[in-house]
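Handout, page 2. Input:
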Amino acid sequence: MISVRRHLEKLRKVKRHHYHPLIHRIHRKHKISRKTLFYVKEYGPHSNVPRTIIKESLKILLFASILSSVGGLALEQIRVLFVSIIPLVILLPVLNGMIGGYGTIVSSRFSAMLHEGRVRGAWWKNQQLKKLFVQLFVIAVIMTLLSTR
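Output:
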């Protein structure tokens, strides 16, 4: 255990952005994942982690900003059509939330049925699962009617 710690300390002192043969040696000798060794080397005490995170996130932030701008320009082009379907646009967040809730219900109930052994063989022929889908469909119709009023 002491030799592993000593090897990892050596690795942390290796220059960043440079593959070092020590990584391969530690990986083979101590069976430590190469990715773990990479992170030990790259984010050791000589690195500035906040600066690295900001630098790596900046590209994604710029891409998201450009994509948002293009989306805004596209919406501006269809403004008249968009205004005519504004009730549907208002309902989309509600419907989206309902879909997420129903997905959670189905996945939790289905996994519970699998765990309890109530679903065997062809799951699409299971009566309890069909009953669950019918119940959720009825609830979805009722919630949709209530949301649109």
